[in-house]
Amino acid sequence: MNTEGFTSIDLFVLIAYLVAVLIAGLYFSKKEMKGKEFFKGDGSVPWYVTSVSLFATMLSPISFLGLAGNSYAGSWILWFAQLGMLIAIPLAIRFVLPIFARMDIDTAYDYLERRFDSRFLRVIAAVLFIVYQLGRMSIIMYLPSFGLAALTGIDINILIILMGAVAIIYSYTGGIKSVLWTDFIQGIVLIGGVLIALFVLLKDIDGGFGAIAHELANGKFVAPTEKIFDPNILSGSIALIVFGSGLTIFSSYASSQDLVQRFTTTQNIKKLNKMMFTNGALSLGIATIFYLIGTGLYVFYKVQNAGNGAVDDVAQDQIFMYFIAYQLPVGITGIILAAIYAAAQSTISTGLNSVATSWTLDIQEVLSKDMSDKRRTRIAQVVSLLVGIFSVVVSIIMAHSDIKSAYEWFNGFMGLVLGLLGGVFILGFVFKKANKQGAYAALIVSTIVMVWIKYGLPADAVNYWAYSLISITVSLVVGYVVSILTGNKVSAPKYTTIHDIPEILSDSSWEQRH
């Protein structure tokens, strides 16, 4: 046990880690990337590196601290959200990746322009993504910095600025290749840190895993009040969480540029499939460990050490941070905190690069054609710098606000924004007759419906896990009906719908030509 909390040795370990990440990022950016290489890489990054990068991007501090906090304070009900990957990954592999690979898209929203023949739709989708990503990066900077500030006494503004600065530097200099390799390193640190924390926790608990299993069997896995299924599909239940999460994750695989950008690094479908399966296994496995840690923290603090009052004032999102500081050996604390910073920085650097890519290729280039590679790269670098600074400022503001559970707040926000984008993508994938007018109608009507649900109805009227289900359903129905009413004889471009997938898969010779 470490009664001193965060020590100077831990601070040294944390700073050494940040310096190492910065050096690694600059090393992988030593080859000057220009034009498409800055955005899509040079084809030299192995699939497993990209897969761990995808995992590290999706596993933010919101997961690192929020998941453990949720199972500490309650049950494993939100663990079932991870099972949504069992829906999302097969759907993405079967219906999305072949289309994206065959089209050789530059960004996610390049698909929308080519599918619906609309530059403006591409711009609108990119703006929605950028707004979503700005919110995501801000909360991801705030969450670990808030906990670390409480433990160390270091001003939270300094911690947020430091985290943002390191990510900005290597995102600015090296493009996607630098981001992928640094994400890979940080993903490994993440996995190692979580396993160390679980090992120490099991050692500290009387009875080890058996004590955790006892609590899980007595209401900590699924509480008696939590429903497996509710006939009211808009009310909270395990079935809704699994299905709603599956649609949200699938929407992100199809329409979120930070994830789709990983898919654009190769046209090899076998590599893309390996990437997705590995990402799914890592995500589900590590999420399960977080939930075990959360229940273990409950056993340790609330069952076996109840009444000491030490953790009474610790917020649920920060309980894992508290354990890291006061129960882990000196030095190990620094390593685990480095892992939390790794979760944050991998997500931030990806966000900066994807926003810069989307702004440059989806907005700037679409509005002013024929830009040189040098100008594209320069614009992307300036945008990543400005967006990084903006996110740091918003994060500092957010750090002084009151968000009960960052994970739940963020999932509601993500379901709203990604559901709107995902609905338009799925409309394009599924219906050959879907046209530009249908796509616009789908986006407008689903936006109105979702804003009304989120802000016009009582907070508990519609469970946030239903957001994607509602917005995608509205998009498909409205988009198809309007497309039929305004229809013409022009068919969807080749290789842009799921109906073209058999032909795509039967002729993979195009993979070798690129």
Average of pLDDT: 82
Give the number of helices: 20
Unreliably modeled segments: none
Looking at this structure, what is the CATH superfamily?
Sodium/glucose cotransporter
What is the terminal-to-terminal distance? 56 Å
Q: What is Rg?
A: 23 Å
- Give the helices and strands as they follow along the chain: HHHHHHHHHHHHHHHHHHHH
CATH topology term:
Sodium/glucose cotransporter
CATH class, anyone? Mainly Alpha
Estimate percent helicity.
over 70%
Please count the beta strands (DSSP E, at least 2 residues each): 0
Main sheet summary: none
| Total individual domains | 1
Q: What structural category do the secondary elements indicate?
A: mainly alpha
What is the percentage of strand-forming residues? under 5%
Shape: globular
The CATH architecture comes to: Up-down Bundle
GO molecular function, one term: symporter activity
Protein name: Sodium:solute symporter
Subcellular location: Cell membrane
InterPro entries: Na/Glc_symporter_sf, Na/solute_symporter, Sodium:Solute_Symporter_SSF
